[in-house]
Target: Programmed cell death protein 5
Amino acid sequence: MADDELEAIRRQRLAELQSKHGDSSNDQQGQQEAKQRETEMRNSILAQVLDQSARARLSNLALVKPEKAKAVENYLIQMARMGQLGGKISETGLIDILEKVSQQTEKKTTVKFNRRKVMDSDDEDDD
Model:
């Protein structure tokens, strides 16, 4: 009788694991669809605010520096949602925005010298 109970518990547990696994694939599919909808929404907003040459420049930038292109896209979408854009942005307008973003995200290069102390010299070890 204990074997029957144990077998029933095993079947129940297996069914629970299979249902959880099925839910996770559905959840994963839902996340993928949401990501695709967000991408389509971003592209439609960018198509409304950028002219053809500016879109081409932005897509070229995305190939070389994806993080910078994403920052510019976010900036443009935010401005469009706030109603700060008056018409389509030309390529020269996009270049100005790129320069602003570059200045904000510019990394400062610093060089730090670590000098050895007098007692830590390797010259003394040549004996």
